[in-house]
Amino acid sequence: MTASTKAAAVGGRRTADGAADTAGGYRPPALQRVRTWFANRFAIIAAIVVLVYLFVPVAYTFVFSFNDYRKSNIVWNGDAGPTLKHWKNPCGAPGVCDALVTSLKVGSIATVVATILGTMLAFALVRHRFRGRSTSNVLIFIPMATPEIVLGASLLTIFVQGFSRFGLRLGFWTIVIAHIMFCISFVVVTVKARLQSLDPRLEEAAQDLYAGPGGTFWRVTFPLVLPGIVGAALLSFSLSFDDFIITNFVSGDETTFPKFVYVSYLRGIPAQANVIGFSMFVIAVALVIAGQVIGNSRRK
Amino acid sequence: MTVASAHVAGGGTTHADPAPAGGARKRSWTAYLLLLPGGLWLLLFFVIPLVQLFTVSLQSGFPGYPGYYYRDVNIGNYGTALTEFAGHFGRSLLYAGLATFFAFILAYPLAYAMAFKAGKWRNVMMICVIAPFFTSFILRTIAWRQILADDGPVASTLKFLHLLPGGHITETWMAVVAGLTYNFLPFMVLPIYASLERADARVIEAGGDLYANGFTTFRTVTLPMSMPGVIAGTLLTFIPAAGDYVNADLLGSDRSTKMVGNVIESQFFKVLGGFPVAAALSFTLMALILAMVFLYIRRFGTEELL
């Protein structure tokens, strides 16, 4: 097959010898053309396949939010057909909306605090020389290199054996404290990268134009770093919203959305969880796209 | 001010200057003020808890009174952790290693396409990588359990092709590794993308112009340029995967696929008097991972991480 195609191609070129130069130019053999076509698009094709793979369970969650199941939402009930009843009553399952509200509250508080603390740390580490700078760098890196289960276990022991003396009980605030802790490192890394890639000449130019240190910071540095800070905040919120392992250790009786799903797994997860999970996904995508569009229009 | 003007006059050389802009001139107490709140938080809720966990790992239980401990230097907890649960440690490292490898294979083309081929779709692809977080990873893992179930589409197809000798995917190591790969894939994609985005596409094109074929260009130009991202990505995938217990719990079997995380979790919550051994297990896991991380960073060296 290969040989014949090649021969045909070679033959074709020979016969068209005189005309080829004026008309179409050189055409590589068919097989090679197919290979180049795939080689040029390999990354794109592979990327689409991987993206589809990322979305497979999300699609599953979406489909099963329409399941009119009897006992548990595992097998598709073909007799009843798709239903909208879970979408009409998303808080219908006991506790599911309370868990969602808790997750949103924890995520918001943790994101705000972690973003502020982490950004301050990033500025200190990039813009200042001080004693213990490399130690601080390592200290900030280690929480990311520590498995969540170890963070959860250590927090549980200190909350139960140490901090309970100060009246701190396992619950909402211990979850917030833990989430702030593990988000800080991610904020520092994200903001640091942005700060390091800034052109220092921009700030120097501002100073040359007689901007004071405050003016330089708020009108030049901060707007330039802002995309990094926003990215860090988004990352913090998604990490906090999706965290289960650490939350499970420090939450006591409080229930977040992931914990609600995990705990109800044995009894059967209500389809309302699918509705909420998929809606949060859509809302997140919509918000980020809206932010993009606003950002783009401002730049123009 | 004069220094700054000189720098501007100096033109392009400024950017390569390792000293931060004006950093040397700022008084250092600003630095400490910036560090104080975040540092205090990490001290109170990261360092001190770890120290406490370490003292717990050395405690002994009162014989006959499960759940009560006294302060001790009982290294025996570490002996128990290492001998009784050696298999779990091995499994954790093996599964995490496999998952990291597969995640790398899947993540690289995606990150590459995002950085060089996506054009205006770049941000949309970025959202697509992060957005599944919002469906909750527990929900998605349970979805995988149904998709990979014995009568589900994947297992049926493999059985039809006689590629599944055991007849099951769930309840085996395959499902656990698949789940770990899936759940930590975004942590591999994002750092690789970040380092490729910073790389100069023209350098890669130059490889092609100098008659290197696709694979050679990738091996000698693209991959080395993205190495900081690859290292960060493998760490951010391997570490949580090695400590995970949710995938083994939801996708694996009760006996043959349990990882260290499952043991720690059950020692803490289900075994009365299990605190010291669980703490010893946690500490061993952390020490093991930190040692591997530092060896790894030293071997493939990158300052950018720290």
TrEMBL record, chain A:
<dbReference type="InterPro" id="IPR000515">
    <property type="entry name" value="MetI-like"/>
</dbReference>
<dbReference type="InterPro" id="IPR051789">
    <property type="entry name" value="Bact_Polyamine_Transport"/>
</dbReference>
<feature type="transmembrane region" description="Helical">
    <location>
        <begin position="42"/>
        <end position="63"/>
    </location>
</feature>
<feature type="transmembrane region" description="Helical">
    <location>
        <begin position="216"/>
        <end position="239"/>
    </location>
</feature>
<dbReference type="GO" id="GO:0005886">
    <property type="term" value="C:plasma membrane"/>
</dbReference>
<keyword id="KW-1133">Transmembrane helix</keyword>
<keyword id="KW-0472">Membrane</keyword>
<dbReference type="GO" id="GO:0055085">
    <property type="term" value="P:transmembrane transport"/>
</dbReference>
<dbReference type="InterPro" id="IPR035906">
    <property type="entry name" value="MetI-like_sf"/>
</dbReference>
<feature type="domain" description="ABC transmembrane type-1">
    <location>
        <begin position="100"/>
        <end position="291"/>
    </location>
</feature>
<keyword id="KW-0813">Transport</keyword>
<feature type="transmembrane region" description="Helical">
    <location>
        <begin position="138"/>
        <end position="160"/>
    </location>
</feature>
<protein>
    <submittedName>
        <fullName>ABC transporter permease</fullName>
    </submittedName>
</protein>
<comment type="similarity">
    <text>Belongs to the binding-protein-dependent transport system permease family. CysTW subfamily.</text>
</comment>
<feature type="transmembrane region" description="Helical">
    <location>
        <begin position="172"/>
        <end position="195"/>
    </location>
</feature>
<keyword id="KW-1003">Cell membrane</keyword>
<feature type="transmembrane region" description="Helical">
    <location>
        <begin position="275"/>
        <end position="295"/>
    </location>
</feature>
<dbReference type="Pfam" id="PF00528">
    <property type="entry name" value="BPD_transp_1"/>
</dbReference>
<keyword id="KW-0812">Transmembrane</keyword>
<feature type="transmembrane region" description="Helical">
    <location>
        <begin position="106"/>
        <end position="126"/>
    </location>
</feature>
UniProtKB/TrEMBL annotation, chain B:
<feature type="transmembrane region" description="Helical">
    <location>
        <begin position="268"/>
        <end position="297"/>
    </location>
</feature>
<dbReference type="InterPro" id="IPR035906">
    <property type="entry name" value="MetI-like_sf"/>
</dbReference>
<feature type="transmembrane region" description="Helical">
    <location>
        <begin position="93"/>
        <end position="112"/>
    </location>
</feature>
<dbReference type="GO" id="GO:0055085">
    <property type="term" value="P:transmembrane transport"/>
</dbReference>
<keyword id="KW-0813">Transport</keyword>
<dbReference type="GO" id="GO:0005886">
    <property type="term" value="C:plasma membrane"/>
</dbReference>
<feature type="transmembrane region" description="Helical">
    <location>
        <begin position="229"/>
        <end position="248"/>
    </location>
</feature>
<feature type="transmembrane region" description="Helical">
    <location>
        <begin position="124"/>
        <end position="143"/>
    </location>
</feature>
<feature type="domain" description="ABC transmembrane type-1">
    <location>
        <begin position="89"/>
        <end position="296"/>
    </location>
</feature>
<feature type="transmembrane region" description="Helical">
    <location>
        <begin position="173"/>
        <end position="194"/>
    </location>
</feature>
<dbReference type="Pfam" id="PF00528">
    <property type="entry name" value="BPD_transp_1"/>
</dbReference>
<keyword id="KW-0812">Transmembrane</keyword>
<feature type="region of interest" description="Disordered">
    <location>
        <begin position="1"/>
        <end position="22"/>
    </location>
</feature>
<keyword id="KW-0472">Membrane</keyword>
<keyword id="KW-1003">Cell membrane</keyword>
<comment type="similarity">
    <text>Belongs to the binding-protein-dependent transport system permease family. CysTW subfamily.</text>
</comment>
<protein>
    <submittedName>
        <fullName>ABC transporter permease</fullName>
    </submittedName>
</protein>
<dbReference type="InterPro" id="IPR000515">
    <property type="entry name" value="MetI-like"/>
</dbReference>
<feature type="transmembrane region" description="Helical">
    <location>
        <begin position="32"/>
        <end position="54"/>
    </location>
</feature>
<keyword id="KW-1133">Transmembrane helix</keyword>
